[in-house]
Fold this sequence. Notes:
Elements: H1 17-28, H2 33-40, H3 44-51, H4 71-80, H5 86-92
Amino acid sequence: MDIGMxxxxxxxxxxxxxxxxxxxxxxxxxxxxTEAARRFxxxxxxxxxxxxxxxxxxxxxxxxxxxxxxxNALRRHVEAHPDRTQAERAQHF
Length: 93
């Protein structure tokens, strides 16, 4: 079992724009999506995504979190309000 394929290595698995274009060209010139996916060793879902309008320009969204947790503020909050539940703390922060 290869444990090197964790989420940390996912960045290196992204396809270059050149490869994306070759896959799209292959399908548009008459090849099937399944055949192109197999030939270029990419997922079929990626092929479908790239063929959609604007699919070649798609960029993965960044992290959803807009800020990091201020641990010192959390510590002060816990000390000031020891009776609060975890859900109440999560709502506060």
